[in-house]
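To the team - GBH complex, inputs and output below.
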Amino acid sequence: MAARITRRSLGTVAGLAALGAAAGTAGAQPDSTSRDRTARDFPEGFLWGTATSSYQIEGAVNEDGRGPSVWDSFSHTPGKIRSNHTGDVANDHYHRFKEDVQLMKALGVRAYRFSIAWPRVFPQGTGAPNPKGLDFYSRLVDELLANGIEPIPTLYHWDLPQALQDRGGWESPDTPRAFADYAGYTAARLSDRVGRFFTLNEMAAFIELGYALGIHAPGLKLPPARVNQARHHAVLAHGLGVQAIRAAARAGTRVGPAENISICVPVIETPEHIRAAELATRETNAGYMTVMMEGLYTNGFLAAAGADAPKFTAEELAIIASPVDFVGVNIYVPTRYVRAIDGPPGFAEVPFSRTHPKMELDWLRVGPEAMYWGPRHLSRIWGAKEIHVTENGCSAADQPAPDGTVYDTDRVMYLRSYLTQLQRATAEGVPVRGYFLWSLMDNFEWAEGYESRFGLHHVDFATQKRTPKLSAAFYREVIARNRVM
Ligand code: GBH
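Output:
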């Protein structure tokens, strides 16, 4: 019988243990309190997962032949990261991965999206591989499979080998080729056990933040022409990577991107504003998702860039738009609210209210409807046939209570409202097949260091103790029942 959580049970049984007992009986029990079952159910077989990335959790930066990455250099530059934190130790996941797989098993996830550190596999970016580097991921894959969790690696989550940065990084036309070589090499060696790969995580983030704004590695503030060329090389790397994986991996291996698209949300859901939101989404993703899906730079993009437009060939555009098996998108915020206007471009931005709610970071504006419009736009604008939400989550203040538990009621509220909109998309037939919650545990949040916590598990970075938060109990219920709770 599913226990009902009452004030009394919470008061008498220590914290999450009470919720855990309830969760243990979840799933099979009829739920007499809910009459709206189908209205909240996810499609059968929905792929529930969690996500992390290599530099954010692994630590062990000097072990087993790993080469330095741009994030080692950047985080060791004083003043770049809040409190000058680095990823040197991070969650020590390199040594604790078995424990972390057990956290996932307890959640009941079916899949895990992690990233492979390029500088572990090719310490110099190209040239001689380091077998010990790939061996770590091979052991992780085995551990996941032994626990019934599908491993789905991302090949690039921002930790570019420093040796490649020394030769121009994403500004160099050689970097996309080097990425393809590394991707093919890695996929060939894992595809006996790994059936799906993501290419690059959020090109829009590492290019704009790393090459234009200077707040992520490598910390550059380049003029537009050079940013545009670096961006072109990033999308080219994606396309070359797709081709290299298809050529090198076991037949049937599936591949797609994990991009952070700009999601333009209709300010009111009328046909006119919806049309405006689609036009705006296509234009504001012109340098990333649009060129990947369409194999062209839009007229609006080229006109806005003028003399600073990237140099490219028709052949490169075809490579960039290599067919993918699925489209992965990280969804956190409604990037813009838009409305229809007469005349070009057909849309205008609606400013955010000063009191628009947000989570612990300024950019984390809450807008659950982004979780509906993101996938729907991918399906309507570009005809995406299989969509995965490769990240969604939030940072919160996360104070442990006297009983040691983090009662992150705000994160639960955030997740419930976003999942409600995701369920709405699936119910309307938008082909969303998977959802990867960011993140399994608190970790190195890039320029914010360890002070911004996105985890379902609280991490005490002094002791490396992981403790499930209230949101972990919530997510376990969602997975067990395959519905928004
Ligand atoms: C994702 O980025 C990343 O893939 C992941 O590694 C990260 O930990 C997670 O989300 C949480 O941040 O510095 O004010 O200019 C999310 C998308 C886009 C969020 C750029 C931060 C910069 C805001 N990111 N944005 S600001």
